[in-house]
Specification:
14 helices, globular, Fatty acid desaturase
């Protein structure tokens, strides 16, 4: 196991802004989100032109496949993670100021479909269901009822979500009288479906590569992420954010994807700015120890996922941070990891808490 050392994940420090920065700053709500502006510009001027080329009738044969390969690499290995977590951050905290409402539609309605996000569905699911329900029984993406170190269970989880996820989300939102969110999600699904149908008549291979394959990849990656973030759930206190989620520190992923590894503190304070998580984590570290919260140093979510599927609890425990000697030894940590991956059948109302 590890002791808590220096945190290397990104925080905000004051800086001098150049003229281009000063041009953009009046439009955004928080100066700390200026990196989002430049990421948005890069995606707009790199990924969208590549996608457009694939629909051009004069791009054929090996040239088409070359462009397709470049597009696939850029979309999935350069931009997908940073964009997805930028969308996450701007779902919790609006990107642009209230006087520029149309600009806040650019990410979910223009860029998101190129990454497999149907417009508005992510917001409606994440803000309208996942956070209010906190991975408990009414959360359709809850991991509780699955054996969370089993690949077979994960495939069942993903299959249910992929086939029934939107249907169940709409049903949930209507039951909870969140009809506006349900309408937004339904509109986004219909528009995306119509767009893909029409584009198939123009160029079906390009439509598959640009929109439909990213839809499958995104939902697979999203479910792998959510599965891992909520893989270790305490049977006796599943509504406790310290005991139903994990934190990953000191990983490149946090630099690339806006401190997404701080999932415990994100559930405790969903509206907290992404640059504040490392400081908040250190200020509240005693609560992590009191709850035997799971903190991995040097492992990101995907690494945790694959180790979990291989049941490599020894490797997972070796990367755990033993805060305030919350664990007597590595064997105790392994026992806790195993216990928190066990299937939980929710049979009664469970209180949501953050300890």
């Amino acid at each position: 196991m590890k002791v808590l050392g220096t945190i290397h994940d990104p925080t905000f420090t004051g800086r001098t802004y150049n003229r281009l920065d000063q041009f953009f700053l009046p439009y955004i709500k928080d100066e700390r989100d200026l990196p989002f502006v430049y990421l948005t510009i890069r995606i707009s001027f790199i990924l969208i032109p590549l996608a457009a080329l694939l629909f051009m009738p004069f791009i054929t044969g090996w040239v088409w496949w070359a462009v397709a390969a470049i597009h696939f690499y850029v979309s999935n290995f350069v931009f997908k993670g940073p964009f997805g977590l930028m969308l996450h951050c701007t779902s919790h905290r609006p990107f642009f100021k209230a006087e520029y409402p149309r600009l806040n539609n650019y990410l979910p309605w223009i860029l998101a479909p190129f990454f497999g996000h149907t417009p508005e569905t992510y917001y409606s699911h994440h803000i309208g269901m996942h956070h209010p329900e906190n991975n408990l029984e009414d959360d359709d993406s809850s991991t509780m009822e699955f054996q969370r170190d089993s690949l077979r269970s994960f495939l069942s989880y993903f299959g249910q979500f992929f086939v029934l996820g939107v249907h169940n989300l709409l049903g949930y939102l209507r039951r909870k009288n969140r009809n506006k969110l349900a309408s937004r999600a339904m509109t986004g699904e219909i528009v995306f479906g119509l767009l893909c149908t029409l584009l198939c008549f123009v160029n079906w291979p390009a439509t598959v590569l640009v929109f439909l394959l990213p839809l499958f990849i995104y939902r697979m990656i999203a479910m792998m992420g959510n599965w891992t973030q909520h893989a270790f759930v305490d049977f006796d206190d599943p509504g406790n954010a310290y005991k139903n989620s994990i934190t990953c520190i000191n990983v490149k992923y946090n630099k690339k994807c806006w401190n997404d590894g701080y999932h415990i503190s994100h559930h405790i304070r969903p509206g907290m700015h992404w640059t504040e998580h490392p400081v908040f984590f250190q200020k509240t570290i005693d609560k992590y120890a009191q709850n035997q919260a799971i903190i991995f140093d040097g492992l990101d979510f995907l690494q945790v996922f694959f180790l979990l599927m291989r049941k490599r609890y020894d490797v997972l425990a070796s990367h755990m941070v033993n805060v305030n000697n919350a664990f007597a030894d590595e064997d105790e940590a392994i026992a806790l990891l195993r216990r928190r991956t066990q299937r939980i059948q929710a049979t009664m109302p469970i209180e949501v808490s953050v300890a």
